[in-house]
Amino acid sequence: MKAYIHQLFLIFIALILLSCTAKEQKDQQEGISKPLPPNILFILTDDQGWGDLSINGNTNLSTPNIDKLANAGAMFDRFYVSPVCSPTRAEILTGRYHPRGGVYSTSRGGERLDLDETTLADVLKEAGYVTGAFGKWHNGMQPPYHPNARGFDEYYGFCSGHWGNYFSPMLEHNGTIIKGNGFVIDDFTTQAMKFMEVNDPKKTGRPFLAYLPFNTPHSPMQVPDKYWEKFENNDLGMRHRDPEKEKLTHSQAALAMVENIDWNVGRLVEKIESMGLTDNTIIVYLSDNGPNGWRWNGDMKGRKGSTDEGGVRSPLIVQWIGKIASGKNVPQIASAIDLMPTLMDLAGVERTMTKPLDGVSLKPLLEGKEENWPDRLVFNYWSKRTSVRSQQYRLDDKNQLFDMVKDPGQREDIAESVPEVAQQLIAAKDKWISEVLSELPESDERTFPIGHPNYAFTQVPIRDAQPHGHIKRSNRHPNDTYFTNWISTGDSITWDVEVLEAGDYDVTVYYTCKVGDEGAVFQLRFGDNKLNGKINEAHDPPLFGMEDDRDERIESYVKDFRPLKVGKIHLEKGKGRLLLKALEIPGNQVMDIRLLMFNRAVM
Q: To the nearest whole number, what is the mean pLDDT of the chain?
C-alpha cells in the first residue's frame, strides 16, 4: 500500500512539473514575462537648502518641475542629511552613518568610503540592474574607491569634492580624462539620458539605476546667462531671518542655479515619459545638506556645516506613479541612512548585508501603512558636533533642547523645563558617540592606491599630495588646487601610496610652464625605480573663472593644464612614498602641476 501511495505521489509531482513547463513555454511563445523591478532615477543636489524650492514656500524662485514631482509623489516634511557633502553621499550609498564608513572630511582622502562597505549600486548590480553615475562622486578617486569599483558600470563626472569651472571643464569618463560639453549640470543630465536610452529596459530586459549627484548650487557660483538674468537685479522679497548675514549676490546666484537644476529635472522626467517608463520608474530627489549661504530657509537655525535644523534638513521627494499616492505628505522624521533599505525594499531586492544597516525602510510610510511606525531618533554629526532629533525635539551639540513643533526656529532652550526629555536624549547621544563615532580611527592610515589589477587607470591629483620646500598650493581649499612656486631642486612633492599590482605604468603629467622656464628636468621616484622627464614646451594659459563667477569665490581659480607624456616607470607592489622632485631648473621655476595620471602599460 505504501509503495502504491508513493507512486501516486511521484506521478502527481511529475504532472505539476509538466504543467509548469508547459505554462513557461506558452508564456515565452506569447511574449509573456515577469515584470521587471522598477528603474531608479536618483537626483542629489549639492548645497541646496530645504527652502530653495517654490513648493516649500519660497517665492523668490520657481521650480515647477520639482514641485510637480512632489505633487505626483510623496514629500517628506522632516528629512535629514549630514551637514556637508561627502558624509551624506556615504550614508545614501550604504544605509549606515558616515563615521562607520571612514568618512571624516571632504578632501585629502578623508572623503573616501571604506572598502568593506557595500553600496546601493553593488546590491542593485548584483540583482541585475545596470548602473550609472553622472556628476560629483566625492567618496574616493582612485580604484578601488572609484565609482566604477563601487558598483557603477558607467561613470561620467569628477570624483573630487568640488570643481573650479562649470563650463566644459576637465572631467572623466570611466577613468579617461575628457573635456565636458557645456554647463556641467546640463552635460550630466544629457549623459544620464543617453545612458537610459542605451539601457532601455524594454530592449535589454534589465532595469537601470541612474544616479545624478549634481554639484550645484555649490560654489563657484557659475550659471548660464539665461538663468542669471532673472535674478541679477532681483532684490529677493524673502530673506534670511538675520538679513544682515545674507550676501545678496550669493543668494541670487544660488537660486539661479536651482532653477537650472529644475529645468534639467524636467528634461529627465520627459525622457522617462517618452520611453514609456513612467509607471515603472522610482524618482528620488533630495539635497546633501543645508544651504551654502545665509538665505531664506523657513526661519530655521543654521546652514551648511551646522548640525542645527537648517544645516541638516533637506527636501525628499519620492515618486512612483501608480504605487505611491500622489500629493502624499510624510510627517515622520527620516534620514539619508534610510534611502538604501527603502529602495531595496521598493525594488524587491533582497540581500543579507555583511554589516548591519542603521537606516530602515520607509516603504510603509510611502504606502500609508504607518499605524505601528515606532518612534525613533536621527543623529547628525560633523566636526566634533553631534545633535539628535526625535519626532518632537532636537538636542543640539551643546545639549540645549528645543521643541521643534512649537519652536521650529530653535529660539528657546527648554532643557530645564523638561529635564527628563533632555536627559533621555543626552544619554542617547552619548551612546551613539560611544558606539558609532568611535568607529572613526584617531588617525587615517589609508594610503592612496595605484594600479588596481582590475582597472588600467589611476589619477593622482595634487589635492592628495604634500608640498615640501617653497612649493605652494593655489588655494587653502584643496579639491581643485594645483601646486606653484616650485623654484628649487630642494623642493619636492610626495604622496603616501600603495601599489596594488606590480608592473610598468605610463605616466602623464598635467602641467603649465611660463615662457623662459622651458627645459626643467624632473624625476618621479617610487622605491628604487625612477623616471625622468623634461618640460620642452612652454604652456602658459591664464587663470580663468572670475569672468563666469556671479559671486566672488573662495576656492582656487583654474587653468587649462596640458598633458605631458613622460614615459614608463616600473612600480613594485607595496606601500611607500611617491616622490616628485626637480633635477634641473634653467628658468625661474619648474612648472605648475595639477595631476599625475598612471595607466598600466600594454605589453
A: 94
Handedness of CA 115, 121, 123, 128 (dihedral sign): negative
Phi and psi based region of residue 366 (left: phi greater than 0; alpha: psi -120 to 50; beta: remaining): alpha
Residue 482: inside a domain, yes or no? yes
CA distance 10 to 7: 5
Residues 434 and 348 in one domain: no
- Do residue 182 and residue 77 come from a single domain? yes
User: What does the alpha-carbon distance between residue 545 and residue 557 come to, in Å, rounded to a whole number?
Assistant: 6
Q: Is 89 helix (H, G, I), strand (E, B) or coil?
A: helix
> Which of 34-38, 255-259, 328-332 shows the lowest mean pLDDT across its residues?
34-38
Residue 526 belongs to what domain range? 448-600
**pTM for this model (two decimals):** 0.93
Residues 432 and 461 in one domain: no
Placement of cell 618621479 in the chain: 524
Q: Which H or E run includes 599?
A: strand 592-600
pLDDT, tens digit (0-9, with 9 covering 90-100), for 311-327: 999 999 999 999 999 99
The beta-strand segments (E) located in 440-499 are: 448-450, 457-461, 466-468, 472-473, 483-484, 492-499
Side chain identity, residue 453: P
The pLDDT tens digits for 340-363 are: 999 999 999 998 889 999 999 999
Average the pLDDT over 492-502 and give the result: 98
